[in-house]
Structures are given as C-alpha cells and as structure tokens.
Amino acid sequence: MFRKVLVANRGEIAVRVMRACEELNIGTVAVYSEADSDSGHVRYADEAYNVGPARAADSYLDHEAVIEAAQKADADAIHPGYGFLAENAEFAGKVQDVEGITWVGPSSDAMESLGEKTKARTIMQEADVPIVPGTTDPVTEPEEVKEFGEKHGYPIAIKAEGGGGGRGMKVVWDESEVEDQLESAQREGEAYFDNDSVYLERYLEKPRHIEVQIVADQHGNVRHLGERDCSLQRRHQKVIEEGPSAALTDELREKIGEAARRGVAAADYTNAGTVEFLVEEEPGRDGRLGPDANFYFLEVNTRIQVEHTVTEEITGLDIVKRQLKIAAGEELDFAQDEVDIDGHAMEFRINAENAANDFAPATGGTLETYDPPGGIGVRLDDALRQGDELVTDYDSMIAKLVVWGEDRDECIERSLRALREYQIGGIPTIIPFHRLMLTDEEFVQSTHTTKYLDEELDETRIEEAQEQWGGDIGDGGASEDEDEAVEREFTVEVNGKRFEVELEEHGAPAIPTGDVSAGGQSSRPEPAGGSSSGGETDIQGDGETVDAEMQGTILDIEVEEGDEVAAGDVLVVLEAMKMENDIVASQGGTVTQIAVGEGDSVDMGDTLVVLE
Fold this sequence. Notes:
The protein is of the alpha+beta class. The chain is globular and about 70 Å long. 26% of the residues lie in helices and 29% in strands. It starts with a strand and ends with a strand. A hairpin with a 2-residue loop joins strand 26 and strand 27. The chain has an 8-stranded antiparallel sheet with strand order 13-12-9-10-11-14-19-18, sandwiched between helices.
C-alpha cells in the first residue's frame, strides 16, 4: 500500500479522499491555490503545497505544478478526485511516466479510448451494448448534420468528443439551426477540451438518466455496484441523485448493470468508473419500466463521481478505498453475487446558489452560521466550518448531504428532516429547492425525466420556497469596511527542513520583515507552478470598460478593435457554470481595446473590452 497520497483537488472531494487514506494509514498531501489558502482541505491534510494563483489554469490544472508538488512531498501516488485533471488522459500519462508515483485511476490509454465519445461508442457497440443512433466518426460540415437529420429526424444532439455534463453539447431542433449549433459545439470543444471534434446522436426528448457504478481491478475482475437515478437535472447538471432507481424493475436493472460490466471489460478498464445510460420513459406508465424498455449507452466517466456516496450508502462499500487498493495492485475481495443493495439513499448537492434567481451563484460571503444535520442515516461530505469565507473562483457546490433509509419513503422523510436541520447563514444555498422537490408529486412518484426542471416545473414554486425557507443569505460579498489584511512572509527552518510561513494580520500597517531565514534567504521561493504574481491588464485610454460579471472562460470574441457597436451588440461569449453568456454593450461606441483572448479564464470584475 502507498505511504503518502497527494490529492490533486480541493474542497469536499479532497477531504473525502483524505479520510479514506487516513483509515488505510496513508499520509495525505493537499495542493491549493492562493484563493484556497485557508480552505478546509488544506486544514485537513498532513501537509500542503501552494501550486499557484486563483485561476484554475494556473494552479489546479497546471500539470507540472501538481507533479512537482508530489515530488517535493515524496508522495508515491496521486488521486485526482473528480473535475479538474481527473479525466485528463495527458496528465494521467505524465504521472504514469514519473518514477515512483502511481496514478490512482484508469490508465491513460483507457481514459483516452472511453473519453473520446466516438471511440467509446464503437467499443460499446462491439460489446453488444445498446447505443443511441448516431455517428461513430466525427462530423465537420453542416451538410453532414443535415443528412443525419433527414435520415433519423430532428432533434439532433451535437456533442463534443471530450465533453460531458452538458458542456460541449448543443441541440438542433430543425435544419435552420444546424450551422449555428455546430459552430457553437465545436467552439466549446476547442475551448474546454482542446478538441473541436464533434459527433451526432438522436436526441431523446424526455429520457431518464441511469448510471451504473463500476469497479475493475488489474486481475481481470469487473464488478457493478448497482445503479443510480440522476434524472433530476437542470440544464444537464445533476441536482439530486438517488439509488436504486424507483422507476426500474429488477429485470431491467440487471440488464443495464450487465451491459455496463460487459462494456467496461471490453475496454480493458481498471479502477472506478461510471457507465451512464439514457432510458426511454413511457408516458402514463402504470408501474415500473420493465425489461423491454429501451436503454442506450451515453458515456463513461473515467473517475470517481460526485454521487459515488449514494452507492456507498446502499452497498456498504467504500469506493475510494477500493480505488486506492486497486491502484496498489490488490485484487477485488468480493464477487458480483455478493453485492447486496440495502435500502435507499439520496444525495443533495448543497450549492451556493439562489434557485429563485435562475440558480445564480453567490459572488462572495461568509458562513456566519454553519450547523449541519446529524442523526441516523445522515452523512455530510464537506470541507467547511463556521466563519469560513466563501471561495467563488471554482464550482458553486460547497457540500453534499447524503441520506439513507430502509426504503425510499423513509429516505424522503429523513431527508426532509435533515434539510430542515441544516442551517447555513450568510450565503444563499439551494436547500429550499431541495425541500420543495421532496414534496413535489412528480419527484415523489419518480415519474420525472431529465427535462422536468427545465420545461415543466412552475418556477414560481421555487421562488415561494426560497422566500419561505431561504433564511439569511447575506449580501453576497465582503463588507466594505472590513479591516485590510497584511500578510508577512517568512522562511524558517525546523530540524533541517525549510518551511515558508505566512502571517496574516488585520488592521496593522505593512512593515518590512527583513531577513529571518535560517539560511539567509529573504525572498520567498516561488510556488511549485512558478511565480504567482500575475500582472493585471493594462487598460489604455479612459473609455467605458465592459467587465466580467462572473468568473468563467472566454469562448468567443465577436468584435475587433476599431469596430463600431450599438447598445445590445454581443461583444464576448463567456462560459460560466457550464452555460454560455453573451456579454453585450450597454451603449454604442467604438471598440478601442480587447483585453482578453479566446480560452482565457477571467474573474468577476476583470475588464473584457473597452469602448469609447
């Protein structure tokens, strides 16, 4: 088994992995950006390394910085968690090439095969796993999309090869939308996955989203751990996950599970992963979906999933521990027929968002109150404590509430109790939305589909829930008269090992610290990723600046310097929270400066364009 594992992630999933390590007597190493210097995963780890500034591209996504931190810490394994570098085959390959460090996950070859969606479809088709009618080769021209539409009908889903979670996917409802949606999908694929290849699928209008948890070792053993129902989604993003699905008969459940196991075995896959399927709902059905229901392979997530906790609760198996043991070469210690599903579990993503305001993410704030629930059957995965400042540079999910019951009815009742107990003050959360869903007839009856929230739910009900149960949501940012913090940096030596120490003082004037290093070094060493002193954009002239309203990534720039624009014209396309946002001119003028480029990460308040 490993001596020390670096967790290349942040927040609750980093703490989740570290807890599994601690139970296996493995030391833990955190990496953090400057924005996360006081975050919970840094507090929890045995040791921590700064890998760069707040922007993920310069810290958590910096391959060399993360690997260098692992080498400095003398870690012998890297666990990626989910998100960030978890499904980056190139990074996995780099880790595999480093002597003395093991990648906790599938091989880079398997990740590449299953991460490229057309390759994955081919593998699954050869393994006799049903796939949605679509292309197995990338498409590049609008005419190819139109020909597919003539053959299979509309709507059509155009999907980025490296996409997932709705990112890089566009729906074409009729022929007039082909050109725009193809270009948009290619643009997102290039911006996020460095790959503008896209493929086509018949778009299922109202399916259920069913996924199967897989674990596979290096000795040829593949097990499935049952399914999760993730059909409650908003804009392709899961909100509540549960298992087992209340919509499937045991016969259909077994067919889907065996299809997943068959497909993963054919891909020579190891470690944990999730095989996702779309199941065609039968409107007005009486009873559960039977073995004759249509289901289709969607994709494989080559990593631990956010919702792995649901499966852990109903099987009693620690999936993260199994990941570590598999990576260390151990064989799975249970047979397929020994996997027992006990009771029912649900996971509620606790996002710092205001559901009544189109799920807008919080722009700042302090956890003035943080009092999580407890009791039998209640689990909380988080990295928070009361008084923490909300870090808004990354995903808005701050915790996961997981509830188990002997059956689905008890799980819903217990979840309502736990959500009522869960007190968070100072920032908005979607706890009121979750409480609403647990009293919603479609959800309670398990007849909802992936389109229910976007197309059918009355939004005024969300507003009423927020008003009734929203509580203290703070002002979304820090107080203007907050004392200025002064940081003093030292390099010290303890028992021959050097440490960089930062002391933060509020309300004190800055003073020179001089040389306090035991080795005579007065300047602070650079973080593992290099210098963190990113320069600000030099704004020329005194025209009107058009600034980013939220943190995100620049997908497209619609203007050039010298262009004349009118009020309402689109200047820049900004992706935030996996949605495209058009940044428009508030007044007419001439574009005198473009301060960003395609693919750039920007923070809220960064200048994008200057108009005169």
